[in-house]
């Protein structure tokens, strides 16, 4: 079985409160984007994990695909598989790529073993792997609060718009990025604003990580400004960075970004 775990973007990201468990409460819109990894699993005599593509830092035993297997195996004693992850989505990039791999692994193992888990059960397993993981179970645009696991329906469709994602080859640790932010209650109604036309978002719908990271990494600010100069309806850093996205009505010239990792395509 093969699947294509996709990236997400954050449209608006308020970091509203530091929690007693060390995490932060956030408010954000998560929106899926078709920049994808490839994840294949086949039945095997023993559990094997192999990855190709972009190098994944750290011990392969800690890969979220394996973590997903162990979480389900502990409870359901499932047979071993050979997993092959071809890594394409930039890492430490605010795109939730690792989280998507973990959540898709849960969905695949559920299907392959006919476990018949509900969406809620798969979200709960995913939440044990990381804050961004549960979103990728349903994988549709949603308004998110809590640590990243509380979902509110959001009637937002950007279908057909062109998105450009530029990753300036800077790896930002999520933990460090959070430690550089002073939490603050939302100063505007993010959810309501997201329901108004995209042309009204600029300067209003903000990512709170930008305040600390844009000064530290001027290239992020430069790319964001360039995307606006090229006619973006809206541009922002996603998550804890370092990827910046721009949303456009039409395809744009990408020659400004040849030294970076870039993906462009239509939003669903
Ligand atoms: C920045 C976002 O991508 C926005 O969607 C997410 O909040 C990050 O989610 P993630 O990468 O899945 O993060 P996790 O692997 O759960 O946590 C990594 C570290 O980030 C910090 N963290 C993460 C999520 C959160 N809501 N509050 C936090 O303070 C914690 O220090 C945690 O130890
Ligand atoms: N399948 C995976 N893909 C990428 N990183 C993984 C994966 N599984 C585990 N990791 C570990 O997670 C770390 C990256 O986590 P990090 O949260 O910074 O990036 P991410 O999951 O790619 O997405 P984001 O930048 O949005 O958080 C890597 O250094 C690696 O050790």
Automatic annotation (TrEMBL):
Top-level EC class as recorded in UniProt: transferase
Amino acids binding ATP: 90-100
Top-level taxon of origin: Bacteria
Catalytic activity of the protein: 4-CDP-2-C-methyl-D-erythritol + ATP = 4-CDP-2-C-methyl-D-erythritol 2-phosphate + ADP + H(+)
Keywords of this entry: ATP-binding, Isoprene biosynthesis, Kinase, Nucleotide-binding, Transferase
Every GHMP kinase C-terminal domain range: 205-251
An example molecular function term from Gene Ontology annotations: ATP binding
E.C. designation(s): 2.7.1.148
List of catalytic residues: 8, 132
GHMP kinase N-terminal domain residues: 63-137
GO terms under biological process: isopentenyl diphosphate biosynthetic process, methylerythritol 4-phosphate pathway; terpenoid biosynthetic process
Recorded metabolic or biological pathway in which this protein acts: Isoprenoid biosynthesis; isopentenyl diphosphate biosynthesis via DXP pathway; isopentenyl diphosphate from 1-deoxy-D-xylulose 5-phosphate: step 3/6
Function: Catalyzes the phosphorylation of the position 2 hydroxy group of 4-diphosphocytidyl-2C-methyl-D-erythritol.
NCBIfam families, alphabetized: ispE
Family: Belongs to the GHMP kinase family. IspE subfamily.
Name under which the protein is recorded: 4-diphosphocytidyl-2-C-methyl-D-erythritol kinase
Organism from which the protein derives: Flammeovirga pacifica
